[in-house]
Amino acid sequence: MTRQLISSGSPFEKQVGYSRALVDGEWAFVAGTTGYDPETRVMPDSAADQARNALALIARTLDGAGFAMADVVRATYYFTRAEYWDEVGPVLGEVFGEIRPAATALIVGLIRPEMKVEIEVTALRRR
């Protein structure tokens, strides 16, 4: 199986050397995804809405690569403030409540001040 790079079309992918996702065999590795609205490129103020946007982009990316959210086996959540966990936790539960991937949540600095949450996932295609 060959390595496949999945692009979102962002000029930053080539500029800084990354892919929205990389598929290698039965594995998909989705890059850290923030919550900009894909149509308006505006970042919502709510951490929960940022998470919803990020998860929707992750789902579209996985679907385009032949995977489903149910294939997610690992998730990492990056928050700029610990209190965002309480706001975003229910959103994560809506998406991953039955899937229950291994997960880690971290408090970090992100590259833009409006970013409150970033999510990355790894998926293993189910046969």
UniProtKB/TrEMBL annotation:
<dbReference type="InterPro" id="IPR035959">
    <property type="entry name" value="RutC-like_sf"/>
</dbReference>
<dbReference type="Pfam" id="PF01042">
    <property type="entry name" value="Ribonuc_L-PSP"/>
</dbReference>
<dbReference type="InterPro" id="IPR006175">
    <property type="entry name" value="YjgF/YER057c/UK114"/>
</dbReference>
<protein>
    <submittedName>
        <fullName>Enamine deaminase RidA, house cleaning of reactive enamine intermediates, YjgF/YER057c/UK114 family</fullName>
    </submittedName>
</protein>
